[in-house]
Amino acid sequence: MSSRIGARTAGLAQDSPDPAQHSRTYSRRASLVVLCGGALMTILDGNVVTVAMPAIQSDLGFSSAGLAWIVNAYLIPFGGLLLLVGRLGDLVGRRRMFTSGLALFTVASVLCGVATSQGALIAARALQGVGGAMTSAVVLGMLIALFPEPREQAGAIAVFSAVGATGGALGTFLGGALTQALSWHWIFLINLPIGTAAWIAALRVLAPDRGAGLGRGADYPGAALVTGALMLTVYAIVGAGERSVGGTLALAVVSLALFAGFTLRQARAERPLLRLRLFRSRLLTGANGVQILMIATMFGFQYIGALYLQRVLGYDELRTGLAFLPAPVLIGVLMLGLSARTIGRFGAYRVLLAGLVLIVAGMGLLSRMPVSGMYVVDVLPPMLLLATGFAAAMPAVTGLAVAGVAEEDAGLASGLFNTTQVVGGSLGLAVLTTLAAGRTDRLLTGGEVFAVATAGGYRLAFAVATGVAGVGLVVAAVVLRPARDSFAPAAPTRSRP
Questions:
Q1: Helices (H) and strands (E) in the chain, counts
Q2: d(Cα 403, Cα 400) in Å, to the nearest integer?
Q3: How is the chain split into domains, by residue range?
Q4: Name one GO molecular function term (predicted).
Q5: Torsion region of 133: left, alpha or beta (phi above 0 gives left; psi -120 to 50 gives alpha)
Q6: What pTM was estimated for this model as a whole?
Q7: Is 405 exposed, middle or buried, given 0-12, 13-18 or 19+ CB atoms closer than 10 A?
Q8: Is the CATH code 1.20.1250.20 the one for domain 26-479?
Q9: Distant-in-sequence, close-in-space partners of 197: CB < 8 Å, separation ≥ 6
Q10: 182-204 residue pLDDT tens
């Protein structure tokens, strides 16, 4: 409104929009669509296999332990490489990194779809993880460059967050629908036309950018240390339920040693991969910490909620996917319709706290999930609370994480933010599923029937997730409290006579 007032008081007589400005706005919106489309494909693929795993196990003969590697083979390179490729995007150009990642991801998807052995599928999934990291790591940095003005940036981030949130939930639905209607091969083969179209659109729409050059900031020893540390961390997390506590602790110690070596390297390197001064930003560090706790909670709900519907209430794959469908629909509507305006009016800090309160309330209701539960009474209400809370919290925490990040560090900050998403999701999944399985085993040993024991394990996991979300709320309230919210509404502007 103030910009329109300013234009009128400046004496602009023409009513028609400036053609150059209109073209620039269209170009930016088209770029936003392409970036979100590429990110959506990688996000979907992280979840689409969940419902299809029994069919894959039956077809390729995976053991129960080996089946987990269909997911792990994707997560480990994806989470481990995000920080490195985010920085490389700053050096070689983010458009080049994004389009290369799309091409690699599409090729790897085809290899997954035509795989006829366990080894071929796992190797192709790992290649998918590399392509997914290349595509995802630079998206947020490109959005910051495209939309530098705070309110426009909040709107773009809301769209991007909506795509990410709905993509995760839609993956469960699409996995069940494609597997039941066609076969599990099509959950991967569907990426061929989508990926090809996204790659062509990216080449045509995204403006070329020149990176700083590999000679500036390419700390390859540091890259090896941090990539190894991140991959080992994700590996330790996702495989925690399959090994002894001592084995997991040993991996954790080695991972911490690699992180320590990386930190020392960055403090002394002439051209560090990660500028440690980034962590002086209270908003960047605090927002990433809050995101880890929030994503751990939401991933736990998505995975354990699907198991509850199937193992306790007896839903099939398609019905489970349909049961989750209201969540992405609500998230998309709220993020696209209200998120940017709400943040613009009340500020990211207040919106984040309100969203986290709703997430805590939703998880608290799930922790009372009965054995003979009803979907419309026991599942849908807390799901809608969680969806509303996530729709408010995710764009807000994303905006806080990138507030004040310099242009030359945007790709690195984007990679860091995506890395904490993967680590948070993997950590939440590993901890909550391990707790649920342990509680279920104890109840079965005590003589409970399967449904009662299984529901008891899930209730414990949801109760712990409630506590994790509560910790995230406290951290956000204390650490992210700003002197002046950077997303607060600007003061009203009066036109001069």
A1: 21, 0
A2: 5
A3: 26-479
A4: transmembrane transporter activity
A5: alpha
A6: 0.70
A7: buried
A8: yes
A9: none
A10: 888 888 888 888 888 888 888 88
